[in-house]
Design goal:
Distance between the termini: 42 Å
Number of strands: 19
Shape: globular
Oligomer: single chain
Strand content: 15-25%
Radius of gyration: 22 Å
Number of helices: 12
Largest sheet: 9 strands, mixed
Structural class: alpha/beta
């Protein structure tokens, strides 16, 4: 029996009394992935990206482990909810226009002490001040650095379009704007190198593309390490007691941790290891988050139909954004139908071994987005479900 077949047998036994659709997290794999992130971080603390987890119980589990500290959130409403729930170090990774949220933040000492908001433009400070509604608490601020690799005088750009702040001078200018403005405290710098941390460099069947990605990422790491260090020096001239410099992502943990200027690493997807993280030379994780759909039809030889399945991930549309049939091995989508909202046909000789009611296990393309489809996660240890915990959705929250 292969390792994957053994996992299928475990998951089927663990969920034998549960109807599908059902989502699980294999805690043995989750904990092993957490250990690997800590190993790669080389002693620097890891701030957990909540967008990639979206389950309070699992955030608490990983933050109880040595090597993890703090949360990186994705909306202001989520940040405030987490802070009210007892998480005392929440970095909002994206600028917000949530005026009601800013009013709450500025009016509550506990929230203001726990939550740090993201800024990359003085206009965002204006918006926060206009939203205060009389709240006088000091708002903690982090500046985001654009990590994109720019070539040929800026005519070629590789990297996500996030912050407009690219040079040390630009970041220092906004740092001075924060420092001059009453009611704000600049405490950190963040830089997410998605073109390094979030792009696989060993795509099966595409050796030339993989080689090109590795060359690009090596160049991007060198350029960013130099520029990030210069940015930190420039900002420390304005704010000498800067609390943190955050960088990285699951795919670049060990590279970013090697930079002296970086004090903490961000990671989250590496806990669940969705399918987009299969194509890396830098690490090998264990799939920890899966969902099962039930076989409801057998339309013909070599075909079964499962209920649901149209759970695409965000990003540029493409086949790599679809969940992948994982267990049993050997199933694939019908290219004429793909993953359907209500039903999904699956092809392959192994389909003939499946019966009505059997489970087919899938892996989502991205990590936390799976939790937008399920109210609960069944936590599996060995071949048993040992706990059932709510996702954000299960607690009544869909923040975006």
């Amino acid at each position: 029996m292969t390792a994957r077949a053994a996992d299928r047998a475990r998951y089927d036994r663990a969920t034998a009394q549960l109807d599908a659709p059902v989502a699980i997290v294999d805690l043995d794999a989750f904990d092993a992935n957490a250990d690997d992130l800590v190993r790669r971080a080389g002693g620097k603390p890891i701030r957990v990206a909540s967008k990639s987890v979206r389950c309070r119980a699992l955030l608490e589990r990983v933050l109880a482990r040595e090597g993890f500290a703090g949360i990186m959130s994705f909306t202001l409403a989520e940040s405030l909810w987490l802070a009210r729930s007892g998480f005392d170090d929440v970095l909002l990774a994206y600028p917000s226009a949530d005026r009601a949220g800013y009013a709450e933040l500025a009016a509550d000492p506990k929230l203001a002490a726990a939550v740090t908001v993201m800024v990359d433009d003085p206009a965002q400070l204006e918006l926060i001040d206009a939203a205060r509604a009389g709240g006088g608490e000091v708002v903690r601020v982090c500046l985001e650095l654009d990590t994109a690799l720019k070539l040929l005088g800026g005519r070629v750009r590789i990297g996500a379009r996030r912050s407009p702040l690219h040079s040390p001078a630009q970041v220092a200018e906004v740092a001075r704007a924060v420092a001059r403005r009453p009611g704000f405290q600049l405490v950190g710098i963040m830089a997410y190198e998605g073109h390094v941390a979030g792009v696989g460099d060993a795509v099966a069947g595409r050796p030339l593309r993989s080689r090109a990605v590795r060359l690009m990422q090596a160049a991007a790491r060198r350029e960013l390490a130099e520029r990030r260090a210069a940015v930190v020096r420039a900002v420390r001239e304005v704010v000498p007691d800067l609390e943190f410099v955050n960088g990285g992502g699951t795919g670049s943990v060990q590279h970013t941790a090697a930079e002296d200027a970086v004090t903490e690493i961000a990671a989250g997807s590496g806990l669940y290891v969705p399918r987009l993280f299969d194509n890396y030379t830098s690490f090998r994780g264990r799939p920890a988050a899966l969902f099962a759909l039930p076989v409801v039809r057998r339309p013909g030889v070599g075909v079964v139909t499962v209920l649901g399945g149209g759970y695409p991930a965000s990003g540029a549309p493409g086949a790599d954004r679809l969940p992948v049939p994982y267990l049993p091995e050997g199933l694939r989508y019908d290219p004429q139908e793909g993953a359907g909202e209500v039903q999904t046909p699956l092809l392959g000789p192994v389909a003939d071994d499946l019966l009505i009611g059997d489970k087919v296990w899938f892996r989502h393309a991205k990590a936390g987005e799976l939790c937008e489809r399920f109210d609960t996660l069944r936590l599996v240890e060995g071949d048993a479900v040992t706990a059932t915990v709510p996702t954000y959705r299960g607690e009544g929250h869909t923040f975006l």
